[in-house]
Amino acid sequence: MRFATIATLSFITAALGAPSAKRQEQLNGNVFFCTEKDFTGVCARTPPTDNGCKSLDDTFNKNISSFRIEPEGTFVCLLWSDANCQGSNPGGWIRAPVADLSTINFENTASSYQCKSA
Hints:
CATH architecture: Sandwich
Number of domains: 1
Largest sheet: 3 strands, antiparallel
């Protein structure tokens, strides 16, 4: 009887498992951002995750002047003024290339970004 109880509890524990975090799927494409307007200066291309947040490293933190989604239209992104997608944002999801972030009052302001499926 004791063996059956232990076996049953082991099965239930394995079936339930530990709580799991929502798995973030990588989006099809990249974000491309640069330290200068018109996609010049030091640039980076990175794959975002769906509804995931990415903080910018020291090279780009509060130091990007242009931002785009590649290929355009596959997903949308939101820039944030603070790390971990906190703080303020320019007021909407970016859908098209922004060659000059000063046009949306966000030049050298972004510290993180999040993207989601379009």
